[in-house]
Amino acid sequence: MFFLVGVKPYEGDEKWDRVVSFYSLKTKWANKDTPSPRYWLLWPGVLAMIVISFTELFLQYKVFFIMFKAMGRGAAKGFNAMTAKAGMSGTTINVRDQEEKDVILDSAEDHELVKIWMWGPVLILSIIACCIVLGVQYDMPVGMSLLSVFLAFFFAILAVQCAGVTDVTPLTAASKASQLVLGGATKGEHWMTEHAQRLNLIGGSLASIGAGQASDLVGDFRVGYLLRTSPFQQWVAQGLGTIVACILAPAMFMLFSKAYPCIIDVNADTCPFSAPSVGAWRAVAVAVTDPVFPVPKTSGYFAIAFAIFGGAMVIIRHYAYTGSWEKYKAYHPNVMCIALAFVLNATVYGSAMVIGAVPAYFWAKRNPQNFEIYGFAVAGGLIAGEGIGGVINAVFQIAGIAGPDPYGTNIACPGDSC
């Protein structure tokens, strides 16, 4: 059946006529009646990632309890200080001080700290600007914009705490949960399906970006704290970097969309960039806004079973490996990676991991001290070099010199598509 829903991207080419692609998400091949392998596997992968992410999140309930307790203590102390300053000494909230063993001394002087007045007004202006831009550009109601901002704050708190405890940022849970909430908010509005999907993606991305940026920022400040860097200097540096990114990020997207138009064409049969997360975002947006449930029955049944299995495996990993069993924890399968593979529509990611992991393994085994000094620097350089090379290739593509003519080769490129 799957070969009946594939696309022959090189039909008529004597050399590549037998190549069948399942990359396209055209409606003809992306529906519940004639699902392509990519479309069928998309739903189990997405649902399993959501369930696994939330299971990981819920298992940190003790940490979140401590976090909210600390937030309440801080809010109460702030309220008491404010009322005392206003001469309302009788209006106070009784709160227990933090135990001395739990107090972490801050090495920064008072003048090095970032004050609320430095970022508070800018935050308020950003929220107002966000509501105005989304309303004018995409016809998003102010209420939905504010809901997206609230979700961004909520998931930012969870993401920061979870990243600090487990070193894993639950962006999958944040983004998909925000899409589900916003999907429920748009159900009763009777909007056109395309408009509802657009607002769902925009609102979900706003919440996800807020959570991701917050966890990254706190991670940077954590490194600065360990290095005894002035928080104010870090704040200024982050602000300057953000200003540059606001200009550079859209420019990069415009560059790549100009060089490779297929990345914004859902009906493209082939594309140099597989963009797997795009498929996951689109799948959730379609599922929560489409009047007709778009998931094939067999895919839906398997998605539920696979998600339950993934959640159970997370619970087993947290509680089963104790005592003499702890040594086997390293061999416990990561179902999140398996679910991610369902969403990925290309093998290049696994190939890249193998190409990097195998030499790194033998290098670390043969010369661990040398690997400790240079290993991560080499890996970081290769990743950065690939990114810079991609920008150069995009410029070459626009200039018409990307290859194979007049320069370049099609060796090992299916369909001579390089």
Task: Explain what the structure shows.
- The chain is an all-alpha fold.
- Among the domains are: 1-96 and 297-335, no CATH class; 347-418, no CATH class.
- Helices cover 65% and strands 0% of the residues.
- It has 12 helices and no strands.
- Helix 4 packs parallel to helix 6 (193-226).
- It comes from Aureobasidium pullulans (Black yeast).
- Keywords: Membrane, Transmembrane, Transmembrane helix, Transport.
- Pfam families: OPT.
- It is a multi-pass membrane protein.
The N- and C-terminal alpha carbons lie at a distance of 30 Å
Estimate the helix proportion, in percent.
Answer: 55-70%
Shape: globular
Run of helices and strands? HHHHHHHHHHHH
Give the radius of gyration.
Answer: 25 Å
- With helices defined by DSSP (H or I, 4 residues minimum), what is the helix count? 12
Poorly predicted spans: none
Count all strands and give the number.
0
Decide which structural class fits the backbone: mainly alpha
Q: In this structure, how is the largest beta sheet organized?
A: none
Mean of all residue-level pLDDT scores: 81
Question: How much beta, percentage-wise?
Answer: under 5%
Protein name: Oligopeptide transporter
Transmembrane segments: 39-59, 116-138, 144-166, 235-256, 299-316, 337-361, 373-396
Organism: Aureobasidium pullulans
InterPro entries: OPT, YSL-like
What descriptors fit this protein?
single chain, 418 residues, mainly alpha, 12 helices, globular, transport, YSL-like
